[in-house]
Structure formats: C-alpha cells, structure tokens
Amino acid sequence: MKACAFSPGKAILLGEHFVVHGAYALVAAIQQGSFAFTCFSDTDEIVSESLNVAWRDGSIVPMQLLPYKKALDKIREQYNFSKKIRSVLSTNLPISAGLGSSSSTSVAFSASVLKLISGEVDYSMLYNMSMESERVTHGNPSGADVFIGIRGGIHLFKKDSFSKEITLPNKVKILLINTGQVRQTSKLISKFSNFKDLYPSYFKMLVEASSHLTLIGSEYLSKGSLEEFGLLMCYQHAILSHFGVSTEILDKIVELAMYSGALGAKLTGAGGGGCAIVLPKQSMVEEVLNSFKNFEVYVSEIPAGGLRVWME
C-alpha cells in the first residue's frame, strides 16, 4: 500500500516580501502542484523525479533533499516509529520560480508520511513538519506557502497570526509566465530586508502601506472588481522593482502584458527571476496568452483546491 498526496502551488497576488515583516499578503492556490508517494520499505529512501536526485539510508543526503530528510527525522521523533519508508516526489511546477514548488513538495511529502504511519493527517502537525522543511530551504519563511499548500483557496494571510479566506463571485483565470531565471529565495528575502536596517522608520511605513493596499485588494477581488485589482498589481510591482527584487525580464513581461490588454501584472514570489503573474481581461485570455509564445506559460483558475491525500 502507498500513501499518496497532492499539494497545490501558490501565487502571491499581493504583498510578497512585506509579509515576512508582518504585512498582509493575498495568496492563491493554483491548479499545478506536487505529488508524493510513500510506502514501507527495507531502507529509508527519498527520490525526487523532478530534480533527478535520490538518497538512501547510509549515504550522504543531497542538498536538494535535506528539507525532506529534516521533516522525516522530526516526524519519526514525534511518532516514535522505526519502520523504513520510501518516498517518490514529483512536481509539475517550475523549480525555484516563485510558485511554491518546495513548499508544495514539503507538504505533500510530510502528508504522505503521516498518512502512512498513522492512518490520518493531523493538519497542525503537518504544518509544523512542513515548516521544518521550508526553514532549511528559505531560512525565515512567512508560512504562507505551506498554509496555502494545505488549505488551498485564496487567503488574506498575516505571518503567525491571521488568515481569512476570500471568496470570489466567479473563478478567475490567470497566467503565470516563467522567466527561466532561477534565483535563491533566501538571498532575495535578505536583500529586501536590508532596507529595514538602513531605513527602519521608512521601512515600517512601507510595511503598513503594503498591508493597507493588500486589504483593499482583497475587497476588490471579493467583489469581482478585476480592473481595480489589476491596477494594484501593477503598483506593487513598481514598488518591488524599486527595491531591487525585479529584473529586466520581469519588467518587460509586465510591460508586454499591459500592452496586450491585461488588467494587471507583477512578479510573484521572491522575484529576481522566477515567474510573473498576469491577470488578463477574462474575455481576452487567449489574446493575452498569444503574446507570450516565447515563454513557458502556466494557465490556472483561481482559487484552486488544497491538499489531497489518499491510499493506493
């Protein structure tokens, strides 16, 4: 028998970077995500098909698999189980592109292990174990990626204290444009956070302003006011670009999106490459999509569902 799990990726609609410092962020689950298949075995083994890397008990853990080995050790300690397991991981998300490939894989992996050893998934335990993985990868994550990988939907999120689900009148199609530029999230978070040390009072006001903007955006989205929401997306991209976490390609994607008739566009996630999120006018999705033939593009309806766990 195998314990199987799927966890969705995410797109940050508004509020990235500022959320690490206590501001609100608006985070949506997307239809793409990560899978984990776990069974009892003669030896511990973790295989990532997407990264083409594997670890077996007794060998050195590859750096890419350290987050999952850390979660496995913590789960084994909490549940006091000694049986060996084998997990096979995969994702249909681009790697290191701001769509939550690491967090969704962490959630799927931990959920499949918990399901196999206990027959059920305690969501509080799952969150904590997945965050253990994310700290290995990102240093000081906000928790938004793990939260959305478990819950799905669209949530107004504040680090360590608050979440509120946002309901939409209708599902909305978005485009996720991959720049192909791989970046390291922890370094970009650190780069952005340096401004707090340099200009603490100024930075504090910007955090409050970003929170206010995100709250307004959540109201627009809940009313289906997509044109107004799109304007906020562009405005926040300009702010993030000013702080040096955008790139020339991301800025060009935003420009091309708006030229093509999109309602809004911005980087999503840490920036420095990765993906941009484009909000097309819902009657013009194909027209806007055709403007990005030279890019890898993911189309998703939001909100998407959350974690799924099953046995095979």
Mean pLDDT across residues: 92
How many domain modules?
2
Given the C-alpha coordinates, what overall shape results? Answer: globular
| Structural category | alpha+beta
Written overview of the protein:
This protein is an alpha+beta fold. It folds into 2 domains: 3-165 and 305-311, Ribosomal Protein S5, domain 2 (2-Layer Sandwich); 172-302, GHMP kinase, C-terminal domain (Alpha-Beta Plaits), CATH 3.30.70.890. It has helices at residues 66-79, 101-118, 123-138, 144-151, 185-198, 200-223, 226-242, 248-259, 285-290, and strands spanning 3-14, 24-41, 45-48, 53-56, 84-91, 154-158, 162-165, 172-178, 262-268, 275-280, 296-302, 308-311. Strands 1, 2, 3, 4, 5, 6, 7 and 12 form an 8-stranded mixed β-sheet that branches. It has a 4-stranded antiparallel β-sheet with strand order 9-10-8-11. Strand 9 and strand 10 (275-280) form a beta hairpin. Helix 2 crosses helix 4 and helix 6 packs antiparallel against helix 7. It is globular, with a radius of gyration of 19 Å. The termini are close together. The model has no long low-confidence stretch (mean pLDDT 92).
